[in-house]
Amino acid sequence: MSTPTLFRRRSVLRFLFAGTAGTAALAVAPGCASGQSATMTVRRPGADRGIVPAGPGVSFDLATAAPSASVVYPYALPDLPYAHDALTAAIDTETMQIHHGRHHQGYTNNLNRALEDYPGLQTRPLVDLLRDVSALPEAIRLAVLNNGGGYLNHALFWPMMRPDGGGTPTGALADAIDRDFGSLDALKQQMKQAATGVFGSGWAWLVRDGAGTLQVIQTTEQDPPHAFGFVPVLGVDVWEHAYYLRYQNRRGDYVDRWWSVVNWEQAARNFAA
């Protein structure tokens, strides 16, 4: 398989809205007038292959964001911080069982398999491998990107929810949301627009950039936001396996209900990390 064919679809859509004083600033592609496009594509070095760039030095503390995740090989499936039926306000029990026990387990197994013959990579933190995936051996580059990203994104996702979640953020995170989006309702609207606007499979994220500004972005497939230089604060999985049993094609309804299980305390720790 040729390299250009092997590395397909690898981009982050920097979707919308980082603003100040409550004003949303639309992120537009270079050469587009403001308002013409809602997305900007950011590619890894070697844009013809679509490989994610090394992130610009943003600190990312996996132990804080995903306490039960493995940092280095061999990777283990992180424990859920609640029972499978604990999030039924938004996500049904069967979906949680399949999502965690099959999908996340599959990413874990495949990531370990990809790295088993590369002892020099096994001691490197996963965050570092994904931040500079273009430096990995070509034979495993796509496997590590897909499965390492899937492992990491899901390890972050589970603690971002809790059974008695929802409500509103407080403290520094609440202040930053008001500063960069105008209000929590405005943030929710933009997250929903990003989540429902993902074509196919991907994620919508609330992220912090290196300057401390909050943004809403989309990532495609399992591309992790930290690889583009962002710290993930909150993320909602919009692969169909995350919601289809209960919501079918009503992705927007899933996103609306998801806010009822959001763990704002974890989000605040992610923002401060």
Name its key features.
5-stranded antiparallel beta sheet; alpha+beta; 5 strands; disordered N terminus; 273 residues
Sheet with most strands: 5 strands, antiparallel
**Span between termini:** 41 Å
List SSEs in N-to-C order. HEEHHHHHHHEEEHHH
Q: Give, in spatial order, the strands making up the sheet with the most strands.
A: 2-1-4-3-5
* Rg over alpha carbons: 18 Å
Tell me the strand percentage band: 5-15%
Number of helices: 11
- The global form is globular
Mean pLDDT: 84
Quaternary state reads single chain
pLDDT < 50 runs, ≥5 residues: 1-49
User: Structural class, from helix and strand content?
Assistant: alpha+beta
Q: Share of helix among residues?
A: 25-40%
- By DSSP, the count of extended strands is 5
Overview of the structural elements:
The chain is an alpha+beta fold and 273 residues long. It has helices spanning 3-6, 62-65, 93-115, 119-122, 126-131, 138-157, 171-181, 184-197, 244-247, 251-258, 264-272, and strands at 12-13, 41-42, 202-208, 214-220, 231-237. Strand 3 and strand 4 (214-220) form a beta hairpin. Mean pLDDT is 84; it is low at 1-49.
Give the arrangement of secondary structure elements.
Blueprint: H1 3-6, E1 12-13, E2 41-42, H2 62-65, H3 93-115, H4 119-122, H5 126-131, H6 138-157, H7 171-181, H8 184-197, E3 202-208, E4 214-220, E5 231-237, H9 244-247, H10 251-258, H11 264-272
Antiparallel strand pairs: 1-2, 1-4, 3-4, 3-5
Helix pairs in contact: 3-6, 8-10
